[in-house]
């Protein structure tokens, strides 16, 4: 950066500092600029450096049509009064990507069908969701019954160091609702809660297997003290016209048609996703150059964060799930690499073919986000603008639009 540009910046920073600086012997704002430059030389040079380098770097990147995949590493900075400002910026860029003959892309589109067995299974799930529970007084608990329990859990021994610190401490839970035979019950738990009646109490110990899904309980011996407060049995409604009417439909056949229609919509979405995945795989196969590790790492991070969110949504503590996170990251690398390759190709096609996203499309997506979050559109836009979210949203919409553009030119094989 030329010396005269540096000098102009130093003068500008010095005058701004002179207006607020307090120096002995001078009233505030009255100290000579020359005195300010001498007294605050290091601070002024620091401010000039942070003012000029980003602007100069942005101009150089635009001049040479370069797009870093990450923030450039600025080093070897040399800045002295009366001399040019010199620095070196090191960064990765996306390597040149090949052109694709869109007409050669062939995509297989499977037929959309729904088997009657699938309709039957979903009808049964609808029936299960609408089951009612009735008190049981004439027998003891059996598989499928619902128990309301007060539970006291005490860890007696554990190979886990963190869990071992809590040995002997009782953890109480009240009004726990549990289904006898439920999938999430601890191993061996069902045999101890079968044959109980309301008012019964029972104490038993369970040894958790070494490969249990929650790491903190692997190999642990846990004592349970339970008190049965209520016993109820599941009563499934009959699959008839009356059941359909309770759900707002005219007949059982109308309910079956509604269920069949929902399954057809799911099958259509699955087909669209499979065709899109086929397209992305073919695009990725055209990338034979080395992909920057920075981009691969970001995609692995995104996959890891998405997986953790799913665990949390399911009520699972990620730190207690017994997952080898380094192994998880390693196993995600190949899929992440393919995703990055496909994304780079989509961006390349969008650039070459001038695929654009309209402001109306951006506004519609912001409106959708606002409705999902229950917040005003302005608040959603402001929040996204804070951390570059608007740019990511626009990039995502552009890639979706590019997929549509490519699909319209590809050969679709039924």
Q: Largest sheet, if any? A: 5 strands, antiparallel
- Helix content estimate: 40-55%
Radius of gyration, in Å, reads: 33 Å
In DSSP terms (H or I, runs of 4 or more residues), the helix count works out at: 13
Which segments are poorly predicted (pLDDT under 50) over 5 or more consecutive residues?
Answer: none
Question: Between the first and last Cα atoms, what is the distance in angstroms?
Answer: 61 Å
- Average pLDDT works out at 88
Task: Kindly describe this structure.
The chain has 414 residues and is α+β, with helices and mostly antiparallel strands. It is 49% helix and 16% strand. The chain has helices spanning 3-18, 33-39, 41-63, 116-129, 161-164, 189-193, 241-246, 252-285, 293-313, 325-352, 359-373, 377-386, 389-407; strands at residues 73-78, 86-90, 106-108, 132-135, 146-157, 170-179, 201-207, 221-235, 411-413. Strands 4, 5, 6, 7 and 8 form a five-stranded antiparallel beta sheet that branches. The protein is extended and about 100 Å long. The protein starts with a helix and ends with a strand. 12% of the residues are buried.
């Amino acid at each position: 950066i030329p010396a005269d540009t540096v000098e102009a910046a130093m003068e500008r920073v010095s005058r701004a500092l002179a207006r607020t600086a307090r120096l002995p012997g001078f009233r505030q704002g009255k100290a000579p600029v020359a005195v300010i430059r001498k007294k605050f030389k290091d601070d002024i040079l620091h401010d000039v450096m942070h003012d000029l380098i980003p602007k100069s770097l942005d101009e150089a990147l635009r001049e040479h049509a370069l797009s870093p995949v990450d923030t450039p590493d600025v080093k070897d900075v040399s800045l002295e009064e009366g001399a040019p400002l010199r620095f070196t910026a090191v960064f990765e860029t996306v390597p040149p990507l090949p052109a694709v003959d869109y007409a050669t892309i062939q995509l297989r589109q499977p037929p959309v069908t729904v088997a009657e067995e699938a309709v039957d299974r979903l009808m049964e799930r609808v029936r299960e969701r609408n089951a009612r529970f009735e008190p049981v007084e004439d027998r003891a608990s059996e598989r499928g019954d619902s128990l309301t329990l007060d539970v006291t859990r005490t860890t007696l021994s554990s190979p886990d160091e963190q869990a071992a610190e809590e040995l002997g401490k009782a953890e109480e839970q009240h009004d726990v609702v549990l289904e006898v035979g439920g999938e999430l019950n601890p191993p061996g738990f069902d045999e101890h809660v079968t044959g109980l009646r309301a008012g019964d109490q029972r104490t038993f110990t369970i040894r958790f297997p070494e490969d249990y899904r929650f790491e903190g309980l692997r190999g642990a011996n846990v004592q349970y003290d339970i008190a049965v407060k209520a016993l109820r049995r599941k009563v499934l409604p009959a699959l008839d016209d009356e059941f359909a009417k309770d759900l707002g439909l005219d007949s059982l056949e109308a309910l079956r048609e509604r269920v069949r229609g929902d399954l057809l919509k799911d099958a259509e979405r699955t087909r669209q996703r499979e065709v899109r995945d086929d397209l992305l795989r073919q695009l990725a196969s055209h990338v034979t150059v080395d992909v920057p590790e920075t981009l691969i790492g970001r995609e692995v991070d995104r996959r890891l964060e998405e997986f953790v969110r799913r665990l949390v949504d399911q009520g699972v503590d990620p730190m207690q799930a017994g997952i080898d996170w380094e192994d998880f990251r390693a196993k995600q690398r190949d899929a992440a690499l393919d995703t990055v390759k496909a994304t780079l190709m989509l961006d390349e096609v969008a650039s070459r073919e001038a695929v654009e996203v309209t402001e109306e499309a951006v506004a519609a997506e912001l409106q959708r986000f606002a409705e999902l979050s229950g917040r005003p559109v302005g608040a959603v836009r402001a929040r996204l603008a804070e951390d570059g979210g608007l740019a990511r949203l626009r990039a995502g919409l552009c890639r979706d639009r590019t997929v549509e553009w490519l699909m319209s030119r590809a050969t679709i094989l039924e």
